[in-house]
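Dear support,

We are seeing what looks like truncated structure output for some complexes. This example has two components. We would appreciate it if you could run it in full and send us the complete token output so we can diff it against ours.
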Amino acid sequence: MEVVVSIAIGVLGGSGIWLLLRPRTFEVLLGLSLLSYSVNLFIFAMGSLSIRAEPIVVAGMAADLLHYTDPMPQALVLTAIVIGFATTALFLVVLLALRGLAGNDHVDGAEDAP
Amino acid sequence: MSVVVASAMPHLIAAPILLPLLSAALMLVVSGRRRSWLAGLNILTCLIGLAVSVGLLAWVAARDAPLAFGVYLPSNWPVPFGIVLVLDRLSALMLVLTAVVALPSLLFALARWERAGVRFHPLFQIQLMGLNGAFLTGDLFNLFVFFEVMLVASYGLLLHGSGRARVQASLHYIAVNLFASSLLLVGTAMLYGITGTLNLADMAAKLAQIPATDRGLLHTGVALLGVAFLAKAAVWPLNFWLVPAYAAASAPVAALFAVMTKVGFYAVVRVWTLFFPAAGSDHFFFGANAFVLLGLVTLAFGSIGVMASQRLERLVGFSLIVSTGTLFAAVGFGMPALSAGALYYLLGSTLTASAFYLLLELVERARLGGDEAALAHNPDEGAPFVVGPPVLVTSPAGDVNLDDAEQPLIGRAIPAAMVFLGLGFVVCALLTAGLPPLSTFVAKLVMLIAVLDPSGLGNESRSPSIGAWSLATLLIASGLASTIALVRLGVRYFWAPQARPTPRLRIAECMPIVLLLSACAALMVGAGPALRFTQAAADSLHRPALYIEAVLSARPVPAPAARAALP
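Here is the complete output from our reference environment:
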């Protein structure tokens, strides 16, 4: 389980950074999205991965993290997803505006000299 | 006033966040066409915000060290669980600085720039809310949220006025900041994973119990946070976004952005002094050497950039980088006296950069011969001062330039406009270069004394270290570089022969610059009290136990039933 999650985070993050360094604006956008997925998974994993643990306190079970999943990272992830979604949408608008103004989709608004 | 503030405490601590939020919400309801309502609401909010911040500053300043913390629990949860707002000397100082910069920026924008796009006013207030929130929060994840609020508003403001240059600079700026925010999140999550808390004070208290095997993880998490903060504070090599973005922004927005790089600095100071106090800790001020080194390199990089700038707006951007470098290098030494000088320098340099951004818009407009000259409406009537013969005061027809509210666009023209621009430029140049007698000179002098003679005059002291010598040398050299660059540009802008009409300035656009420069002058005249205050702020920063105790001992307000049950 830990290995799978860490590989997933690593692959998402690595792909994200590779795309982030590309010269086309849409690739940068995808890179930022992938990166935010990996970050969200990472935050989630920081609350220690547990399977079949109760999320909400039930009667008759001691209220500690041995018996329950940590709700805090879930709350954090929710906030991070909302913020990341909004900023990605904004980035998309700026991307389209630059595409319209510059006439191409290079991040610098101009193709490299050949 | 102190009575009013005292009676409103601790609830007043939430006001710098709630007030802009409420105001922005109201502005969204008001139709965008009612510009005078929006402007009035914005000015009113800024004025109240200024009054509240000054009140909070006075409240903090009037207290002795152990009591100089205002702790507010917004949701009335016990401390480590709910979020917490903490007011101390440093955050009060930053609140006042934000409010002082915001008001002139807004006044300048009202003269012209607010019409360049929609939703300027709500974005402006949301930006202030993010800034104030970042200065007040005592919770790491909350800090991230307020950073994002501030940044989202800044994306909108940077795009204000649109145009290819702004859109392109925004794209880079947004990409860099989104990446930095990801690092901030990763760092926050790691620290939560290690300590199990997000409250900064609680985290700092728990750091001592971290087993040695987790130290590496802790340092990694904090270093990731540090990289995110350094990118936002524009420390080399994470600062290449700053100059193009700020140069592309409209003048009032750039003036407000001058505070934004200081937020990164504030966050670093807040987190590092809490987590890694200079004394009595086995991980002694972790990363301090990196701060000194990066600060010095940033200082050198900024100075070279200042020398290389051919345009004034780029030069001011690089001077912001110089001030960031100075701040980081100075704080990295971990000496209270030096930090006090650095905090005082922060005030002066931020105000200077704001004033300069506003001024250079007018200078540029004058240099281009300005469409403004053609728009002049009501020349030289009741001009406050006239130097020499009033040249080239022509009076075009007064009814051609009405904006959509049927108001004349142009106020009075000052015949001595060039005199104002020239004098303003000289004052800004002196402030940027840190030449006597202005406040940045005092700040540099204080820092030089502190770094070269740490134990005070007449006492036996060790010879300063290589880092100290480098800081002293670079501080002086950066001043020289700024002087050379500004003299060169000043000659080109003001003394080169040119056949163009005398620029027309509006009182509405000159007043904000005068306000900012008089704030700098006030800082110079009141250097004694200001330095005493920053010294107290630096002292309390270097004794984090007080902060931790103040936050952890805060108790929620009991419910009315429980209160009634008390004897």
